[in-house]
Each structure stands twice: as structure tokens, then as C-alpha cells.
Design brief:
single chain; about 325 residues; mainly alpha; two-stranded antiparallel ribbon; 6 strands
Amino acid sequence: AALAGRLGERAEECRALLAAALAPPAEGAGATEAAAARLRAALHESEALADELRAAAALFVWVDGPLVTAMRRGDLLLIDEISLAEDAVLERLNSVLDPSRTLTVPEKGERQLETIVAHPSFRLLATMNPGGDFGKKELSPALRNRFTEVWVPAVTAREELLSLLSRTLSAADAPMEEADATAAWDAGDAAEAMLLFVEWLGERRGRRPSSGGPSLRDLLAWAGFVCETQPRLGWPAAYVHGACLTFVDAMGLQVSSSRAEREALRAASVSKLVSLLPTHEQRRADLYVGTDTFPAFAAGAAPSPTASPNGGSARFGLDP
């Protein structure tokens, strides 16, 4: 209603200005030119108001997405996992990556098709995993040839892994409450212990350091668990249980080894995790962990939260 009212006011103003422009030039040519200028301005504003009115009455209104916005502004647009998009969507990028750098948008539904020309500063980056990975596909040759490909190998350098883990863990970097403040564990100590454990685990499984082993995604999942639980559990318990969640518990799912071998590997893993902690933090009762990560319940027993050693509220364990 407000837009319609404003549009009506501009229409009346346009009529008055048009009548003034067509009237005999009683005050000279200058007055006529001024009236014509005001008329053009009023018409332009009326058109804008009419567009707003049509948009307000429409069921669907076009809104520029990230690609169109980046093309107009000259931004850098990053498309993550580009190969997971539909082929019909990806083919629309061909013209954007052509020398003309254009995109025609028929979806706007206007009388005339709008062709967007990218700003000179516009850049498009995309990431994807190799097509051989499970559930992944390759890009079409037409689209792939329009990119400059850069192969990024997996992060295996120890210095890089240590830096990434330290930066991730620094979000939860609060010193533990200890009697000896000089022995406090921090994010750097936790990152070093995490790498020592995965290196030990790879050797225990007979893997060479360059043959794969735990992925960066696994390490970051472990670090994320530590960041979320460290304020409540403390560094040692968060570190141990994060490793159990990410690596140790899954050892029971391996069918290529016997049950005795899996139990022995889990027990050895827990012992290795505990051994990497400061000496005064290696009490398993304080870490809420036994010799194995799989709890053994008596017949008919129900799981319950593990009470803290000082008799306070539960800090870690299964919900009732």
C-alpha cells in the first residue's frame, strides 16, 4: 500500500511536470529545460517504484546468488567440492570461464535476458578430490580445460601436521590445574603426543610413514574432540578419549584379525596413550579408562555414568 501510494504521487508529479514542459515557454527556454530534467528524474524514480511494486506482488523474487554477486563486485569465489554439483549446474560455468567471462540469467523471468559480464577483478577457484575416490566423479573435459589445475598431495610432513594440530588445539589452550605449574600440558604438548601416537600406531600395523596411515581428517577429528571436551575433562582425559573415539574403538571392527589380536592392540594402544602423558597424569582412574576401551558389563548390568574420583558429578561416560 505504501509503495502504491508513493507511485501514485510520482504519477501526479509526472503529469504536472509534463504539462509544464509542453506549455508555452512563458519564462524562457531555461525553465522548460529545468522542467524536462525534473520530469526525467520523476520518471526514473517512478520506474524504480513500479519495479518494487511488481516485486512485492510477485510470488517469487530473484535474488543474486554467490556467483552473480562475485561477478558483479569482482570478488574471489571459492567452490568447494565442485565435482559434487549437478552437471547441469556445472555447465553454466563454461561461459563464465570463457574469455568473454559472461553469464546469461534467463531464470530472472524478465522481458529481456540479462547477460552479466564479470568484473575485471573477478576470480573463480574450485577444489575437489580425485575422481577415483568413492562417490566422486570427474569434471567434464569442457569445464576442466578451462581451469588451471594444481595437484595438492596429502599432508605428510611432520612439521606441517604439528603446526596444524597446534593451531587447532590452541582454541582450547587453557593450562591444567596442577601442583607443579611448570609441568602443565598445553596445545603444543598435546599435538606432539598425538603425532607420536599415530606414528607408533602406524609402525605397529606395519605401515611405512609415507604409506598413508591416519589421515589429516582423522587427526583433526581427534583435535576437535579435545577442543570440545578439554574444558570439562582436562587435557589428559580429553586427549586419551579422543584417540579412543577416533582410532582405538574402531579396532574391534576389523575382521582380518582375531579377537585376541584386536584386544591386544586396543590394550597396547591405551597403554601407549597413557605413557605419552606426564608421569603425574597417568593414573587411569583419573582418566576414566581401564586396560581396554570396550567396557565389560556383568549379566543384567546397566551402563551408568562414571563418577569423578572426588565423588562429584559425572564428567564422562554413558548416559543412563
